[in-house]
């Protein structure tokens, strides 16, 4: 992908939205992992733990970009991203009250790196898919994610709480990215190459389906909570 073209800027915008929507949970885990440390160690644990997490995530992202070149994995990755987009909108069953904690500096760093590696799969897959194999966009996406994770968790949460549409926009971007991964799968070339209508239909079905399913799951959860409260 050529630098600073319309497709490059649109991919970068998608990466920024994905980072904004998905990085908040990782930032919360980092903060909770360090909360039991003495005050003078908390900031150090957050900074160094985040650096370790960024290295881990960088390796994961580059690995995913290469893996997605294997026939069949674009389809698998796209379907996985559809599920991630849905879970972004569907209420969590478990809640976050059992977030990992640590009582030593090195324990906090280990917790942060491991938790970020596990929770960062959605972010890595989303960024790798949106980058469309462009390593410069992968690097920019990683650079953008760092300040969001380290400093932006409270801001992101406040923005999402004040403007819930941000979450739906992010889920829509993920669904669109999933659609692009699926229609770009080499094994499906004969299905999509002759058919522009088929590509458009795939995008539409995934975006509308994810948003509708997420909205329906959220409404059902609200109804259950209201029923249990009476």
Q: Can you put this structure into words, describing what you see?
A:
It contains ten helices and no strands. The longest helix is centred in the C-terminal third of the chain and has 34 residues, at 196-229. It is globular and about 60 Å long. It is an all-alpha fold and 230 residues long. The protein has one domain (6-229). Residues 95-99 have low confidence and may be disordered. Helix 1 runs antiparallel to helix 5 (121-131), helix 1 packs across helix 7 (153-162) and helix 2 (39-67) packs antiparallel against helix 6. It starts with 5 loop residues before the first helix and ends with a helix.
* Radius of gyration, CA atoms, in whole angstroms: 19 Å
Instruction: Compute the number of structural domains.
Output: 1
Number of helices: 10
Q: Low-confidence spans: pLDDT under 50, at least 5 residues? A: 95-99
What is the fold's blueprint, element by element?
Blueprint lengths: L5 H29 L4 H29 L5 H17 L15 H15 L1 H11 L3 H17 L1 H10 L2 H19 L5 H4 L3 H34 L1
Helix pairs in contact: 1-4, 1-5, 1-6, 1-7, 1-8, 2-4, 2-5, 2-6, 3-5, 3-8, 3-10, 6-7, 8-10
